[in-house]
Amino acid sequence: MAESTAGVGRRKILSALGVGGVGLAVGAGGVLSAQAVTAASQEEPAVADTVPFYGAHQAGITTAVQDRLHIAAFDVTTDSRDELIELLKEWTAAIASMTAGQEVGGDGAATEGSYEAPPEDTGEALDLSASHLTVTVGFGRSLFVDADGEDRFGLKDHLPEALNELPHFSGDQLESSRSDGDIVVQACADDPQVAVHAVRNLVRLAFGTARVRWSQLGFGRTSSTSTSQVTPRNLFGFKDGTANPKSEDEAVMDEHVWVSGAAGGSAWTNEGTYMVTRRIRMTIETWDRSSLAEQETVIGRTKKTGAPLSGGEEFTEPNFELAGRRGPLIDENSHVALAHPSRNNGVRMLRRGFNYTDGSDNLGRLDAGLFFIAFVVDPRTHYVPMQTAMAKNDLLSEYLRHTGSGLFAIPAGVSEGQYVGQGLFEAA
Ligand SMILES: C=CC1=C(C)c2cc3[nH]c(cc4nc(cc5[nH]c(cc1n2)c(C)c5CCC(=O)O)C(CCC(=O)O)=C4C)c(C)c3C=C
Ligand SMILES: [Fe+2]
């Protein structure tokens, strides 16, 4: 694992200025004072706004969800297994640096490299803090076998059964240019420029080995993954993430998120998880013309507080039996009724999605929605049945269009000296 040897790390400067991640104080003309830089060089890197990269699990799953997303899926263009492994090594080193608030490569963006060569780091995050950057890497089915089922990199015997193609769901309008991919990279941060910088630098390192198949920016989280976070709102204006399992509940994470006990060819997936991605366009204009009563019936919760329509506060358990004058207070085909564990064999999923907007279409309608991300122990039990039921019966479906889809196996975390996915390549 290459440690960043860049002179003064991005975080050191900020820390020396007493800046916790926002509002960099610079002198007139935007120049750091010599005093500040000297103090910075004596500082230890601050950790307040960094999320540890090394660990049993990859960061960006149960770590507190940040405000911004840049996610990219790659197609591997080389046939060489060695080049693929080399890329994963280079990515691991770059991710370790960037998540620590430091520049990519020993020479960084503009300080110590050759004047005649392109800088190793693209530079747009130079004056920014680490912003809780996490980068999570996963592998799609197509990394293991091609469309004819042929082995690509000697990994076929290690293709987990859970990494099957997702079935077609009723109403799907998937675009292949927004779906699938050999490798996924999810960068999350509290500053959008930090997330974009991370993906951009990984794309740059991949030149000649892998190319971007699709990517997506997300600008606002639509879930909470920690009890310390308030519930955010989605673009329909509803609180989203209320019933999400929280990472403090380790028993739930162990049962519903983390893979354990996998044997044989799939043993490398232990301590990892599966990531489902769905780009879900929301028909904002139609929704905005529907009544509040219709909106609350569709979701099954109140818009203002997020409480279930059966009563109580935001975190009160819904009572699906409670009847009103015209039937159950929570419609049996409302979104929360169909998504509730009681209707899904008790399964839970860790949602970690983001609002997105990609401008407007040629009719002037917003191309906006939810970039749904969920981490599950097994998509066959924890995603496919729920999505199947929703596609058929969910009152919310009328307002949604699924335009992109992906399923990726997320390997375990790494310790210093290892590279992401090493367990898979060493086993195969
Ligand atoms: C198949 C999984 C799910 C998809 C796809 C999905 C899309 C989606 N959801 C909302 C808005 C809300 N979802 C809420 C709860 C909720 N949703 C899912 C699953 C999917 N959602 C689950 C498992 C749950 C929790 C159910 C429970 O345990 O009670 C809510 C209510 C608040 C909350 O608990 O988060 C809202 C609001 C949208 C807009 C959307 C697609 C664009
Ligand atoms: Fe939902």
Describe this structure in words.
- With 428 residues, this protein is an alpha+beta fold.
- It has 2 domains: 36 residues, no CATH class; 360 residues, no CATH class.
- The protein has 12 helices and 12 strands.
- The strands form 2 sheets. Strands 1, 2, 3, 4, 5, 6, 9, 10, 11 and 12 form a 10-stranded antiparallel β-sheet that branches. It has a two-stranded antiparallel sheet with strand order 7-8.
- Helix 1 crosses helix 2 and helix 3 packs antiparallel against helix 5.
- The N terminus is likely disordered.
- Bound molecules: the ligand C=CC1=C(C)c2cc3[nH]c(cc4nc(cc5[nH]c(cc1n2)c(C)c5CCC(=O)O)C(CCC(=O)O)=C4C)c(C)c3C=C and fe (ii) ion.
Layout of helices and strands, plus pairs?
Elements: H1 10-16, H2 34-42, E1 68-76, H3 81-99, E2 134-140, H4 141-144, E3 183-189, H5 192-206, E4 210-218, E5 220-221, H6 250-256, E6 273-282, H7 284-288, H8 292-299, E7 323-324, E8 327-328, H9 335-339, E9 350-351, E10 354-360, E11 366-376, H10 379-382, H11 384-393, E12 400-410, H12 422-427
Antiparallel strand pairs: 1-3, 1-4, 2-3, 2-12, 5-10, 6-11, 6-12, 7-8, 9-11, 10-11
The chain binds the ligand C=CC1=C(C)c2cc3[nH]c(cc4nc(cc5[nH]c(cc1n2)c(C)c5CCC(=O)O)C(CCC(=O)O)=C4C)c(C)c3C=C and fe (ii) ion (FE2).
Give the structure's gist in a few sentences.
This is Deferrochelatase. By secondary structure, this protein is α+β, with helices and mostly antiparallel strands.
